[in-house]
């Protein structure tokens, strides 16, 4: 009997990495003990030698880029709340992210809606209930691959106040899907966000920078992530210009592509010895 190959569009595999990233946030002072799981601790222990190897040969570990992307996304989101008046934040594929927990403490006036696959959504909902976050911080099930129905992005957005400025955030989601698949998701996001008076999307993306000095180690990390998540982990777009053009084609405008290195001093980010590997995108719908 043969084992079927993993489906690259099966979103159930994404939640596996949520435990690891949840522990990385906690270990670096960005989260609370309630967000830590045993699976996260085990994954951290398993990847410790890998991270040490990558830091030695490539000048940065997996954790370096995780922390860079998390902190810059926080910064971009906070700017939209403070300077553009965003009042509703939707974090899709939130996993064990502590972002909503932290932002609601800093901006108690905002509504924060988290979304994930049903199993993770139930787990996160129970966690938030235990923390007493209140009705303005909630969790709903969502499958980004559903074009319609009660777990679609459109259904998720339909439950929000259409008169308020709104933001969608995703972190650590995009590169689990091939480009045509995730672009169809972006197009549905852009279309759904048009119902609000002003709306934005903030995400991370790992490009395919073939001329990067540590590219062979990037490919190693790519295979490693694919192994842990039982699927592919494709890289998207060869340049910042291509990223910007792609998002505009999918229905966004005012597309900003940010290199974490530009925030090294401002946000006190962990630094890579070589050029960075992740990009942060903030786009208006």
Question: What's a quick, concise take on this entry?
Answer:
The protein has 285 residues and is α/β, with parallel strands linked by helices. Helices cover 45% and strands 14% of the residues.
Characteristic terms for this protein:
285 residues, alpha/beta, Rossmann fold, 7 strands
Beta-sheet strand percentage?
Answer: 5-15%
Residue share in helices? 40-55%
CATH superfamily: Vaccinia Virus protein VP39
Calculate Rg over CA atoms: 18 Å
Q: In CATH terms, what is the architecture?
A: 3-Layer(aba) Sandwich
Name of the top-level CATH class? Alpha Beta
- Give the biggest beta sheet: 7 strands, mixed
Kindly state the number of beta strands: 7
Instruction: Tell me the number of structural domains.
Output: 1
CATH topology: Rossmann fold
- The secondary structure category is alpha/beta
Residue-averaged pLDDT, rounded? Answer: 87
Distance from N terminus to C terminus (CA atoms, Å) equals 48 Å
What are the low-pLDDT stretches, counting only 5+ consecutive residues below 50? 1-14
